[in-house]
Amino acid sequence: MDLKQLVTKKSFYISERKEFISCDLRPTWRIYLLVLILRLVGRGNKATRNKVHIANWALKNSEHIDSYLEYTEQKKGKRPFINLDPAMDKAIDYALYSKLVTVDNNRIQLTPEGIKATNSLIKLEVFEVEKLILLQLKPALSEEKVTKALEGK
User: Fold this and answer.
1) Which H/E stretch holds residue 48?
2) What is the DSSP letter of 101?
3) DSSP E strands, 88-132
4) 1, 71, 112, 133: which has the fewest C-beta neighbours closer than 10 Å?
5) How far apart are CA 98 and CA 114, in angstroms?
6) In Å, what is the CA distance from 142 to each residue of 10, 41, 42, 60, 117?
7) 0.85 surpassed by pTM
C-alpha cells in the first residue's frame, strides 16, 4: 500500500482540551518533530516513513538511542524492539494537509513552506535536546541500517 493512501484513510480534527496534556502528545508538537526529523536526518529534506518512525522512537527514551546505536554499530547482536507510533502517522497526515510535506513513493519530503517553517524552528531555542539527538543519530539512520533494524537482517 502506498504511504499516501495509508496516512489519508481517515478524516481527522483537532479540538481544544480543557485539561493539560503532555507536550509530546500534542499534534502540533509531533508535526514540528516530523519536520525537524526530515530536515536534520533526511537526505535532501526527505526520508522514508521507516526512518521517521525510528527517529521518533529513539527520541522517546535514551535507552532506545543506546540500543539502536549499539545494534547499528554491531556492538551487540540483539536487535532493538522498535515501536512504530500511530501518532507519527497522524502527524504525517496533518503535515500533508497543511502543505508542509508531500508524500511520493513512500518518501516524505518537506515542501518549500515546510523548509521555511523548519528553518525558523531551528533558529529558535526550542527542541534543543531533540536537535542534538537527531544530529547524533544521523549517521546511524542510513536507509540500509533502518531496513536492517526493522527487518532484522
Assistant:
1) strand 46-48
2) E
3) 101-104, 107-110
4) 1
5) 9
6) 31, 9, 9, 20, 25
7) no
